[in-house]
Amino acid sequence: MPRLKFLGLLTVTTAFLLLLLSLNQRPISVYPKNSQLYSNLIKDDYVTRNYNYVSSINDVIKQHSIYIEQETADYPFPNSSDVKSFALATEGRPLRNIIITTWRSGSTFLGDVLNAVPGNFYHYEPLLNYGIVQIRGPPYGDLAVKNIKRLLNCDYTNLNDYLDYGQSHVYLFTHNTRLWDMCELYPMYCWDPTFLKEFCKLFPFQSMKIVRLRLRLAEQLLRDKFLNVRVLLLVRDPRGILQSRKHRRWCPGNPDCDQANILCADMISDYKAAVKLKKRYPSRFRVIRYEDLSVDPYKHVQELFDFFQLYFHSSVKAFLDSHTKLNSGGVSSTFRDSKSAPFHWRTDLNFSEVQYIEENCDQAMKLWGYVKAFNETILKEFNPVTLYTIN
Ligand SMILES: *[C@@H]1O[C@H](CO)[C@@H](O)[C@H](O)[C@H]1NC(C)=O
Ligand SMILES: *[C@@H]1O[C@H](CO)[C@@H](O)[C@H](O)[C@H]1NC(C)=O
Ligand SMILES: *[C@@H]1O[C@H](CO)[C@@H](O)[C@H](O)[C@H]1NC(C)=O
To answer: Where is the Sulfotransferase domain (predicted)?
Structure first.
């Protein structure tokens, strides 16, 4: 397992560095002062045994392209081709897969499932710097779509707002585990557009999840033949969404986040867009509900992977095994019993809160197949999910 080997190396390197630091009685703030030491250690061990100086961006890129070949050595690429036919760095054409959803709909989990595929580069929340807003059109729509396209082409020029925001909110990159490994080794390159461009281009699979862009605008991505993206709309019961959002510090007070009528107007608009996209792009657009995914994650992930043209690799199975069967970790953890997580709202909301949401979400719930709670007695055990059709 090349990735494990790599992480092992990282651990050993870190331990060694900390040892050096403690011997020198230096403070533990290792970045960026000792990044040179990091790079040299890695360079010594991992690539060339050449003791000169800090690895250049080119060195890092070269070494990582070898690493990706190893990481994907057992991956059955479509049409018996190889990583070179899919990486932009070798004039290949990446498989680009996007999850469109909204806050608290299970996308952290699904995004990480996609990222479990070897050779995946994960563009996590490209619109993070816009704040707690939904983008539905002007004034931000055009620029937002443009920036998404730039990222999908590994073009990091003119993304200063995004990169500046990320430096003070590093979770923009930490979810992109393969990039973040590099950021820890070479912090001086982490936010450098040139490095990012070359690094991103090495990866055959480019995934993205977006909670701030409504589906109507995502059509511009599907329309782009060169990008050839696949788009998945991830939908969740508004009662589950709003219950979960109540407990987030950043949500209350932001109307796009805490208002039931706004959420459900978006769900109606997403439904209308979904009907259209399903007709126009039957092989590149799909919908899934969080509740369906959670009740049978293995079956649905396999189906989604067929749609995404990804192989259900053993690393994906291992991720599902460890993330769908137990409750542990904090509130944002994706480690949980996936069968009960989507329905937790039934015990956390009282009946009048549920009714309030249902009054504001009548049409959205009908369209997406969510059933109202008849009365307070059945609230805690009724099945809130029924069938829906997109036509
Ligand atoms: C595999 O080849 C077929 C036929 O040439 C093509 O339609 C399909 O898009 C290819 N798949 C990928 C992932 O490139
Ligand atoms: C339901 O919960 C809300 C918010 O926590 C609270 O203000 C309200 O009083 C509760 N209603 C009942 C009937 O318990
Ligand atoms: C609650 O609704 C269920 C299903 O419609 C019904 O069977 C039950 O009698 C109702 N309970 C009360 C207390 O109204």
So the answer is: 98-368
